[in-house]
Design goal:
The complex is a heterodimer of chains A (112) and B (116). Chain A has 112 residues and is mainly beta. In chain A, 0% of the residues lie in helices and 46% in strands. Chain A is built from no helices and 9 strands.
Chain lengths: 112, 116
């Protein structure tokens, strides 16, 4: 099972770009990388998912190097409303007895 | 389109009692997942139901159980409540199994369970 490691917390200011890196050294060949965002007292929200290289949507970008041992979630021009906990999840694409492990995530605080 | 709904929002129980939490998935979703999030901790996977069957289970004692109904809604039961069961219980749903959409799950707002 691929274990993930993220920074516990990060601070930023409004308008800046924020990059949160997740390490997953023993990621399996078929594993996908998914990021979630969670606000206090709410359930997590799917942000973005990727397998390799770069994925971009209207919310964020996900950069995955060739060796796939890490991934970086990039939030462009953050605002106060981006203050949340961000989770990196590595999961296989099909079947098995995989148990999803969200870990403690990265608490991002955006300052005015 | 309505999202995942959970009830009740808050639940207060006494140690030793039983708690029942309910979840209604997004229309068309057949898989339901339950997670526990204790204060300051990450999400801990509890159970996964798909098409009425329990598909996988996290590292929790048997007093955590549940079921999925024909309409795909689900119920989580916690028996013999202990103080450390106090947490936010989150339900999520997805189209089919978690891997069919690369683990894209949709979460409900959660039920805050307090055990005194």
């Amino acid at each position: 099972l691929a274990k993930t490691t993220q920074p516990i917390s990060m601070d930023s200011y409004e308008g800046q770009e924020v990059n949160i890196t997740c390490s997953h050294n023993n990621i399996a060949t078929n594993d996908y990388i998914t990021w979630y965002q969670q606000f206090p007292s709410q359930g997590p929200r799917f942000i973005i998912q990727g397998y390799k290289t770069k994925v971009t949507n209207e919310v964020a970008s996900l950069f995955i190097p060739a060796d796939r041992k890490s991934s970086t979630l990039s939030l462009p021009r953050v605002s106060l409303s981006d203050t949340a906990v961000y989770y990196c999840l590595v999961a296989p694409p099909s079947g098995g007895s995989y148990i999803p492990t969200f870990g403690r995530g990265t608490s991002l605080i955006v300052h005015p | 389109e309505a999202g995942v709904t959970q009830s009740p929002t808050h639940l207060i129980k006494t140690r030793g009692q039983q708690a029942t939490l309910r979840c209604s998935p997004i229309s068309g979703h057949t898989s339901v997942y339950w997670y526990q999030q204790a204060l300051g901790l990450g999400l801990q996977f509890l159970l996964w139901y798909d098409e009425g069957e329990e598909r996988n289970r996290g590292n929790f004692p048997p007093r955590f159980s549940g079921r999925q109904f024909p309409n795909y809604s689900s119920e989580l039961n916690v028996n013999a409540l202990e103080l450390e069961d106090s947490a936010l219980y989150l339900c999520a749903s997805s189209l089919g199994g978690p891997w069919k959409r690369g683990y894209e799950q949709y979460f409900g707002p959660g039920t805050r369970l307090t055990v005194t």
